[in-house]
Amino acid sequence: MREVTARAPVRIDFGGGWTDVPPYPHEEGGCVCNVAIARYATARLAERSVGLHVDADDEDQALPRAALERAGIAHVALKLRNDFPRGAGLGGSSAAGVAIQAALAAWRGESTDGTSLAERSRAVETEGLRVPGGSQDHYAAALGGALDLRLGAAVEARHIPLSAARRAELERRCIIGFTGESRISGHTITAVIDAYRAREPRVTAALRRMKALAVRMVETLGRGSIDELAALVDEHWQFQRGLHERISTPAIERLLEAARRAGATGGKALGASGGGSVLVIAPEDAADAVRAAVASMAVPLPFAIDTDGARLVDEPVPA
Q1: How confident is the model at residue 74 (pLDDT cuts 50, 70, 90)?
Q2: CB 21, CB 189: distance < 8 Å
Q3: What beta strand segments (E) does 26-173 contain?
Q4: 28, 120, 180, 225: most buried, per Cβ within 10 A?
């Protein structure tokens, strides 16, 4: 039986999220600094005698069905699995979308680059499903590594070089905790963008500062200064949380405060927030204490940095 399996990673967004969501990048230009991590959405396509079949969580059905319908593929079964929590704020739906697009491209014998996979995935979400959102998650899933994304009429993606030693340092000092709360990203994104369109000064000023901080993060990460990155992430959160009252939650604030008491020097919620996961960055000598503090209040999500992006794999999809 013919089958093909592809996977794509999720990401940590250090800064600049929201400046990738239209119409902001087209009108002001956006910048995002993020890094892909080795937690994956995996998609397997297999021959089927008749019709289409999707094997995914009930809430995940819309995306794979929309991707298959848009691709015009018939008589296949699609199995989709994740090794990260739903609603974790890691760009999981985009990772799933990119994994599906990589599998579809291989199924059709196409040679596609990461940019094409990212744009196809984003088109399914924003055009097919009418889900508001930006580009950064799709590019992280497609390209992997640490990215400097400049967003305007088109997206310019550049890898930020990270040595093996720098990747290992990020993996030690960056700590992710999943709060277990459900996110409300679609509602939150719409509310923030409506406020931007209305040119509310609080929102326009925050987005402008978040973009500037992302530009500095790119330069700082390139130099390898994780201490400076932590300070920039911490400042970014103060502007990010001010975009909308539902971006932060009491659970997020309690977790960040506990991490700071343990020695963390930077932290923010990931993704659009309203729940999901929190990133904290610790000094080298406080990493263990901060990790323990996070684990006492949230589900730890250990990770490694992914450098491959979307790719075909041989291993079976988990049950």
Answers
A1: confident
A2: yes
A3: 30-47, 52-55, 76-82, 146-151, 155-159
A4: 120
